[in-house]
Amino acid sequence: xxxxxxxxxxxxxxxxxxxxxxxxxxxxxxxxxxxxxxxxxxxxxxxxxxxxxxxxxxxxxxxxxxxxxxxxxxxxxxxxxxxxxxxxxxxxxxxxxxxxxxxxxxxxxxxxxxxxxxxxxxxxxxxxxxxxxxxxxxxxxxxxxxxxxxxxxxxxxxxxxxxxxxxxxxxxxxxxxxxxxxxxxxxxxxxxxxxxxxxxxxxxxxxxxxxxxxxxxxxxxxxxxxxxxxxxxxxxxxxxxxxxxxxxxxxxxxxxxxxxxxxxxxxxxxxxxxxxxxxxxxxxxxxxxxxxxxxxxxxxxxxxxxxxxxxxxxxxxxxxxxxxxxxxxxxxxxxxxxxxxxxxxxxxxxxxxxxxxxxxxxxxxxxxxxxxxxxxxxxxxxxxxxxxxxxxxxxxxxxxxxxxxxxxxxxxxxxxxxxxxxxxxxxxxxxxxxxxxxxxxxxxxxxxxxxxxxxxxxxxxxxxxxxxxxxxxxxxxxxxxxxxxxxxxxxxxxxxxxxxxxxxxxxxxxxxxxxxxxxxxxxxxxxxxxxxxxxxxxxxxxxxxxxxxxxxxxxxxxxxxxxxxxxxxxxxxxxxxxxxxxxxxxxxxxxxxxxxxxxxxxxxxxxxxxxxxxxxxxxxxxxxxxxxxxxxxxxx
Length: 636
Ligand SMILES: Cc1cc2nc3c(=O)[nH]c(=O)nc-3n(C[C@H](O)[C@H](O)[C@H](O)COP(=O)(O)OP(=O)(O)OC[C@H]3O[C@@H](n4cnc5c(N)ncnc54)[C@H](O)[C@@H]3O)c2cc1C
Ligand code: SF4
Known about the structure:
about 625 residues, globular, binds flavin-adenine dinucleotide
């Protein structure tokens, strides 16, 4: 077991206080042994995850001892526990509130994922029709080396996500010998089953527990596996808005063909009425009522049955991530994909990148396999490890950083959730997970998206206010609840720093302007739900009661909220090796070539010159295709 007896008792006591037996939903946390489930789950997690949860429990206990109750939480009586949790929720000490929110999110995820609870809240868990896989989807061949190796290629690509996969396919189809090195495991539809915690553990970096450090702490989940974050993303496909391209000084006409090619390869199409689900329908109703612009989201899916679990891997391979599109096409054109290969250095000779080195890791645990080193030599090195890991790799070697911009300018699109509760059943989990958008205030940096994660996860989890009977009442009305996420085009930025010992630190403080935009976004989303007929709207702002009518919307924007009051998550890290013409203020040129290091090209989200305002995968892919085509022409 991963937890000491005392920590496990603390977890059990907390779970019971948050979800006691009885009330609108009879079973409590101890009836389904949430603490025991979480403890044995931690046994299967990476050591870093165990450390994080242990630390949270220690911090929670210490803060209880330091409070007016002067004893560890587990030793308090029921009334004192209740009083302490209320103190925590209102505490001016941010860490005290955030620790409680994080532990509560874990507890709720395990509670709601339990097979005994799911039917009680009305979630059948398998709302999709299991069908045979589309025969048009090509099986992907991936090599998983178990010993060290030395290889040569024309181009070696580090990372197999949106940026790496597209580059690999373009280069292989141009006749070049391409090797893709991916640290994660190769998963396919057969792996995409089971409860959300298990899927978080397997398909997400750090078992899903990755955060930015700053005010507030922001959850920043990142995918890990062949296909990168496209394995577990929502499949939303927006082209870069014209006003963004103009601001970046990019030629819209040049990119048009690239966008078309990417969209064709990914079968991008708008969500149809048959799989929209009520979560999208209520947003459609609300935005029409208000006359706001929006519509069904365009997605990279084919044969989607609206099971609503896209963020945990598509069980049908209907979502056309890199592992079922660009990577199989790259392999068909001769590329080799190798999983479990973590690159830890770029080989530099005469100031030029000539290859990469690294270690073979256990793809599931990430543990380095001793004496299993590899080296791949190539004419060009493409870094596509994502906007967090690419800059960290460069920083460790002090490469490509004469501008001192490597790791800076991190944008993440901070986001939060809003819940609308209706007077009738919606069963909103049936349908595409992210199905409908409202872009009325896109130019102001606010994009609203109807997004319904499985119960107990994401917006529906740590965010839900209350505990005890309030929370039970809320869960009992789960069938009547719609959920939306809003993302903010951040004007503030954060930073990625490699730390000694191979670690890294992501710092990010929400700027005052982004706080304002977030509150406006919450207000806009609440307005849409009220216009759609919601009885009440939960904004997840601490202390703010549910909003029932339009006149109450001003509570949101007039309240004296600070950044520390927001419960944010972010899914779009970008910008940490930005494109630019001037080598003094940017890291790569318009074709992703590092200004400072010959032979080094970057094609992932790190090169984006600023916020995309919309979900970024199509932008990343189009720019990766452009760089790869340019490189192919150079090499031929
Ligand atoms: C839950 C979630 C939902 C999202 N939903 C959407 C959406 O609906 N629409 C959208 O446009 N965007 C979405 N995104 C964002 C989108 O998926 C990413 O912006 C995009 O995948 C980034 O592409 P990338 O190539 O930069 O990185 P990634 O796709 O993350 O790929 C990087 C790869 O590099 C590997 N790697 C890292 N370090 C090393 C190393 N040292 N050696 C070898 N390999 C390494 C990683 O394991 C990973 O597989 C979502 C993201 C998440 C997490
Ligand atoms: S909703 Fe998502 S997970 Fe479900 S079938 Fe469609 S693409 Fe796949």
